[in-house]
Design goal:
The complex is a heterodimer of chains A (256) and B (263). Chain A is of the alpha/beta class and 256 residues long. Chain A has two domains: 172 residues, 3-Layer(aba) Sandwich (Rossmann fold), CATH 3.40.50.300; 67 residues, no CATH class. In chain A, 40% of the residues lie in helices and 23% in strands. In chain A, the strands form two sheets. In chain A, strands 6-7-8-3-9-10 form a six-stranded mixed beta sheet, sandwiched between helices. In chain A, β7, α6 and β8 form a beta-alpha-beta unit. In chain A, α3 crosses α4. The two termini of chain A are 37 Å apart. Chain B is mostly helical. Helices cover 88% and strands 0% of the residues of chain B. Chain B is built from eight helices and no strands. In chain B, α3 crosses α6, α3 runs parallel beside α7 and α3 runs antiparallel to α8. Chain B is elongated and about 65 Å long. The chains are: A alpha/beta (256), B mainly alpha (263). At the A-B interface, α2, β6 and α3 of A face α1, α3 and α4 of B. The complex binds adenosine-5'-diphosphate and magnesium ion (MG). The site of adenosine-5'-diphosphate has 11 residues of chain A, from β2 and α1.
């Protein structure tokens, strides 16, 4: 469903994505792992058209978003997606209910009278209740994260992009969220890309796991194969060792 | 040395031209969205109330005192030149209606509502709330910019009219208490010479000011980068730029209005 080929993206002199190739099939969950600042969020934002790649193409259902110029057409393209932001990005002038139901107004034809019920259901899915009338500032970090997730799935998009959905949650809650992501996949057949550092959750939700390093996917494999990978970079990352090729590369990076 | 200075000036000019271009794009895309999507009525109303309520008292106060000082100055000058304070009401009313009412209210609104908008949109920008708007099926231009621009267009003229009134009232107070001019004479001076033309002269300006302030504040807010510090910077520069723009645009609009005879 999603085909990214040769995606490049730089911020000034900083070359973040350097020819990234990856495909995601309909109904599949792809997990992207990789060190902090290696460009995972940048890639997700390119996919949903928030950032425009400098080169390469990202095709979704045959439409190459990097070529679409018209802002109204990009808006149309984005309707397929739900996006769960790394820091939540909740609207802090609105209540939780208004946040969760926000997309329903613009992405669906569901009458306003049903919004409250839907918002309550989605919040229940992420383990929250009776917070509809609070403001985001009154919630803890983990609660905000879950509200953001509820908001991303409220309009039941065909494809969901999760940016570190379990970071900052306690182990039990992060397992609940992993289950929820699995559930959405099974019940609604959503296609998903999930960025995460949480290897436990990555093995659980991922049909395939891809590792992003220095702007490219250095390995794409299913969870079982990944566990026994030969690639020293991937080994070091999934086992979480201090010593290894990645650390040396980081040092080289500083000298660039 | 000189080449370096030239380079700096050059790159500053380029950056300026670039942001002017981007601001023009903002105006363009707001026209596109206004034509292609329904208006955010609730947001527009909310912004109107906010801008109006925030700026009303300050505008009324500053204009009242401006009217007072105008009467006092005119009184003193005309006493020196003509030995008696003449046409105080006329001078105060003309100055307020054509110039000071619109300008004073625009400056107050830049400082209050303009700053508030730049800070709010700036914060939304650095916390990815603007990106979130995109992913939830709307657009910052449609959801944030258009309601604010329309609210400014609706509210600033009203504020300017209030400002005119309170300025003329302030002048009346000083004329009576300090200059000993009877109230009826003052009001005759006001209304014997004031025509609809002058009123429109002031009104047309407020629309130009409203467009300047709202677009500059929104543009500054939406292009914020660099966290809390960035929000502070763009807020300050939004206020400085709007105030400058108001005074500069004031001259050119006046020149045009004078040229076509609306004076
Ligand atoms: N808007 C931006 N402007 C400049 N640099 C950016 C911007 N967004 C991200 N970067 C840089 O790109 C790199 C990748 O960022 P990101 O995609 O957020 O990493 P992560 O993999 O942790 O999600 C970082 O080094 C970051 O500094
Ligand atoms: Mg990230």
């Amino acid at each position: 469903m999603i085909r990214a080929a040769g995606v490049m993206k730089s911020f000034g002199a900083r070359r973040v994505l350097r020819g990234l190739d990856i495909g995601v099939n309909e109904g599949e969950t792809l997990v992207i792992i990789g060190g902090s600042g290696c460009g995972k969020s940048t890639f997700l934002k390119c996919v949903i058209g928030l950032l425009r790649p400098d080169g390469g193409s990202i095709e979704v259902d045959g439409v190459d978003v990097s070529k679409v110029q018209d802002e109204v057409q990009i808006a149309e393209y984005r309707r397929k997606f739900g996006y769960c932001f790394q820091e939540g990005a909740l609207f802090d002038s609105m209540t939780i209910f208004e946040n969760v139901s926000f997309g329903l107004r613009y992405l669906t034809d569901i009458p306003v009278s049903r919004h409250r019920g839907i918002a309550r259901d989605k919040l229940a899915l992420v383990g929250l209740k009776d917070i509809e009338d609070m403001k985001p500032a009154q919630l803890s970090g983990g609660m905000k994260k879950r509200v953001a997730l509820a908001r991303a799935i409220a309009a039941e998009p065909r494809c969901i992009l999760y940016d570190e959905p379990t970071t900052g949650l306690d182990p039990i809650m992060s397992d609940i969220i992993s289950e929820l992501i699995l559930d959405l996949k099974k019940k609604l057949k959503v296609t998903a890309i999930a960025v995460t550092h949480d290897m436990k959750s990555a093995y659980k939700i991922g049909d395939r796991i891809a590792m992003l390093h220095e702007g490219r996917m250095i390995e794409v494999a299913d969870p079982q194969a990944l566990k026994s990978t030969k690639n020293p970079y991937v080994r070091q990352f999934i086992e979480g060792h201090r010593e290894g090729p990645i650390r040396m590369k980081l040092r080289e990076y500083g000298e660039e | 040395m000189i080449t370096r200075a030239l380079k700096t000036v050059g790159s500053k000019m380029l950056a300026l031209a670039q942001s002017a271009g981007k601001a023009a794009m903002l105006v363009r895309s707001s026209v596109v969205w206004l034509a292609r999507s329904p208006l955010e009525g609730r947001q527009t109303m909310l912004q109107m109330v906010r801008i109006g309520v925030e700026s009303f008292m300050v505008t009324a106060m500053t204009s009242f005192f401006t009217g007072m000082v105008l009467a006092l100055q005119t009184g003193a000058s005309s006493k020196r030149l003509l030995n008696e304070p003449l046409f105080i009401g006329t001078v105060v009313a003309f100055s307020m209606v054509k110039e000071l009412g619109p300008v004073m209210s625009a400056l107050v609104v830049s400082g209050r509502a303009g700053a508030a908008i730049a800070a709010e949109l700036g914060t939304m920008c650095v916390t990815e709330q603007i990106d979130a708007l995109y992913t939830l099926g709307t657009d910052p231009v449609r959801y944030l910019v258009i309601p604010r621009v329309l609210a400014f267009l609706a509210v600033l003229p009203v504020l300017a009219i209030f400002s005119d009134y309170s300025g003329v009232l302030g002048g009346c107070l000083v004329a009576k208490l300090k200059l000993g001019i009877p109230t009826s004479v003052y009001w005759h001076d006001v209304f014997d010479y004031l025509e609809n033309k002058q009123f429109f002269h002031g009104l047309i300006k407020t629309y130009a000011f409203a467009l300047c302030i709202s677009y500059i504040s929104c543009y500054k807010g939406l292009t914020t980068t660099g966290g809390a510090e960035g929000v502070g910077k763009s807020t300050t520069s939004a206020v400085v730029m709007s105030m400058t723009a108001v005074l500069v645009v004031d001259y050119f609009v006046t020149a045009i209005l004078v040229a076509i005879g609306i004076t």
